[in-house]
Amino acid sequence: MIKVEHLGKHFGKVKAVDDISFDVAEHENFVLLGTSGCGKTTTLKMINRLIEPTHGKIFINNKNILEQQPEVLRRGIGYVLQNNGLFPHYTIGENIAIVPQLLKWDDKKIQYRVSELLEKLHLSKDYLNVYPNELSGGQQQRVGLARALVANPPVLLMDEPFGALDNVTKAKIHAEFKALDELKRKTIIMVTHDVQEAFELGDRICLMDKGNIVQTGTPAELLFKPKNKFVREFLQEQRLQLEFRSLTLKDVKQELEGFHADQSVWSVMENLKIDSNNSASFENLMSAFYNYKKEQRHE
Amino acid sequence: MNDQQQTLWQFMQEQSDKLAAQTLEHIGLTFISLFLAVLVGLPLGILIARKRKLSGSVLGVAGVLQTIPSIALLGFMIPLLGIGPKPAIVALLLYALLPIIRNTYTGITGVDAAVKEAATAMGMSKWQILAKVELPLAMPVILAGIRTATVITVGVATLASYIAAGGLGEFIFGGISLNNTNMILAGAIPAALLAIIFDFLLSRVQNLNLKKINTATKVLPLILIVLASFYLIPSAYGSKLTAGFTPEFMGRQDGNLGLKSKYGLKIHTIVISDAVMYKAAYEKQLDVISGYSTDGRLKAYDLVVLKDDKGIFPPYYAAPIVRDESLKQFPELESTLNLLSGKINDTVMTELNYRTDYLHESPERVAKDFLISHNLWKPERGGKDGVVRIGSKIFGEQYILANMYSMLIKGYTDYDVSTKTGLGGTKICFDALTNNQIDFYPEYTGTGLLVILQPSIKTINLVETSKEKTYDYDKQEFESRYHIKWLQPIGFNNAYALMMRQKQAKDLHVNTITDLKNYLERK
């Protein structure tokens, strides 16, 4: 659905993005991961033309976006920022309604859509008429998300969307994020420097360094088939947890009964912890997990 | 004090028509200028917020404009725009520009980058971002700029009366010239009140929340226009010729009042400052002006004095007036100052004035040349016996006289000299003298009589018939009332006079004030 070909952005002599290409499939959640300065945000901003590329092409639904009028293009792409970027002089209701206003929807349709989204994002209707500074950080971020989703854009770009939140709030929002049906129908490109977040939310991860892509693949591919030392070292610190997170029970063989095969090892472990009688199953799970890892290494 | 307040109140009641008219003019002048300044400054501020490279030069130019003294700026405007409201509005506009441009720039560049990025990313066009995001968020800062500009403009607008644009300055400067405290206060108090009221109202608008500010800013231009319309361009020309009189001349018995009562002269009159009056006459902005008979600009601008055939202008012989205490303190002072007595007649004084006012020679040089040619100049003795403080009013002739006296004192005595030249008017000069800020300054017999002593009409009619009577009366009264001594007259008579351009006077066959009156009455 989104195709990026030989994209590059140079600021003077500095190559913020050197030469990158990738494809994002429809309804995929594609994560651009890397340290600050690796070019991930620049890449993201070129997709809605907040930054104009130095060279390369970007296609969305086979249309070259560089030939479209930027304003029209942007109205069809949702955008979520780290610091939410809500208009301080607009109420929550007005903030969410910005894009529909630009698209000249009629008032009833806007009202209906705004209240629908508030409900889906667990925001009280009382917030409609308050200003952003009266809300907590987590609530503001939800409003930011609602604003990006309101016009039903097929594509969503997210720039460190949860970067400014504390860990507890972040975990809560991650859970909501995964559960939100609106997002399941979106093609999402998300930028983050948080490895955990990338592995939790991403279908595929694109690890970047110094303006280039180091490796693109599923979380499991990055973990178990790292292309080089950089990838291995980048993931080293949280390796075990990431492994638990990224493997499904299908992966660690089907010998474990009583669990849904698509669940990740991590979530099965969490369930097991609650149900303490199930210690036999926990051991089975662990041995299956290590067997899988061994096999991968020998391949 | 109570007595004075009552008379101020009485004065304001008496002059309530004029006061109301001037206040409205003042408000109008302020807000026309302000409105135009916003019209120019806001887009400029937006422009430099977009193209930051320009910001240095634009803010620099606006800053330089701000530092030009207001009178000078008004002076520059005359050759370009003449006199009256046009140059006044332009000058006020230029003064109001800096705070408006600077605050617009600061306000817009201060808008949170994340908010601007969000606006762009949602597909707003540049204009939509400006109108819906940048301007509303910058509005409190922009309003603060407009508020500053308003207060500045209300203040500077008092100077508009110098170039015949009206406003409360007419009372203020008229009052200073006429030694009339009530008149000064009648202009100054309303002007100060206007500044305070507008500042307060704008502060209220500024402190509204962001939502209400947006409504307020939609109403604000309307209010500005309504206030601006108070300024009815000073009344249409009522006669064939236009006269420009100084505020001082307007209020004096030996000025406009006398012209009306003794000659029955009816002429469309505007109030204008002495500094620009001659030039305005030369540039044909004015036809008749109230000048001084020894003014160098008379020669420079080819003007001719109309003969005062009914004798309403009393003699204005110049002589130094000195505090008695100073004469005691500096025993040699009197004889030194009298060295100049009888040495300068009208023609000589006009010539000297011409050299400073028109040829732009320095008053020092003109003074020294004169003293040398009359064998009066002596080298300095490096005075150690105390300092004599000389005052002078704010025009060329007085500067020359002050310089001559300074050189004489330094050359003939062991006193040193400090000069306080350019004191704004008779009142300021005289107050400086009575308050022991200066030791002496050159004064004119007519001014002493009519401005300072202000005796009854009967006395005036009695003493102003001859040069000697006026001088003697001044001398006697100053001594008994203020302990100030009139020394011997210098010789010339710098009387008030009506003047016209030589060519026009010839064409119209106007030689005397009566001729002028008859010409105006002919249909």
Overall shape of chain B: it is elongated
- CATH superfamily label of the largest domain in chain B: MetI-like
Task: Give the oligomer, counting copies of the same chain as homo and different chains as hetero.
Answer: heterodimer
- How much helicity do the residues of chain B have? 55-70%
Counting structural domains of chain B, the number is 3
The secondary structure category of chain B is alpha/beta
Broad CATH class of the largest domain in chain A: Alpha Beta
In the sheet with the most strands of chain B, the strands line up as: 2-1-3-10-4
Largest interface: A-B, 24 and 19 residues
* Distance, first to last CA of chain A: 33 Å
Residue fraction in strands of chain A: 15-25%
Structural write-up:
The complex is a heterodimer of chains A (299) and B (523). With 299 residues, chain A is of the alpha/beta class. The model of chain A has no long low-confidence stretch (mean pLDDT 86). In chain A, the strands form two sheets. Chain A has a six-stranded mixed sheet, with helices on both faces. A four-stranded antiparallel sheet of chain A has the order 2-1-4-5, with helices on one face. The longest helix of chain A is centred in the C-terminal third of the chain and has 20 residues, at 279-298. In chain A, strand 1 (2-11) and strand 2 (14-24) form a beta hairpin. Helices cover 42% and strands 20% of the residues of chain A. Chain A is built from 14 helices and ten strands. Chain B folds into three domains: 2-228, Orthogonal Bundle (MetI-like fold), CATH 1.10.3720; 242-312 and 498-521, Osmoprotection protein (prox), domain 2 (D-Maltodextrin-Binding Protein, domain 2), CATH 3.40.190; 318-493, Dipeptide-binding Protein, domain 3, CATH 3.10.105.10. Chain B contains 25 helices and ten strands. In chain B, helix 19 links the parallel strand 6 and strand 7. In chain B, 63% of the residues lie in helices and 10% in strands. In chain B, helix 2 (16-50) packs across helix 9 (181-206), helix 7 (126-156) packs antiparallel against helix 9 and helix 8 runs antiparallel to helix 9 (181-206). Chain B has helices at 2-14, 16-50, 52-67, 70-81, 85-109, 113-121, 126-156, 169-178, 181-206, 210-228, 247-250, 256-263, 274-282, 296-300, 324-329, 333-337, 346-357, 363-373, 396-412, 426-434, 445-453, 457-463, 467-482, 502-508, 513-521, and strands at 242-245, 268-271, 288-292, 303-305, 318-323, 387-393, 416-423, 440-444, 484-486, 496-501. Chain B is α/β, with parallel strands linked by helices. The A-B interface holds A 48, 50, 70-75, 77, 79, 81-89, 98-99, 102, 147, 157 and B 112, 114-115, 117-125, 128, 133, 136-137, 210-211, 214.
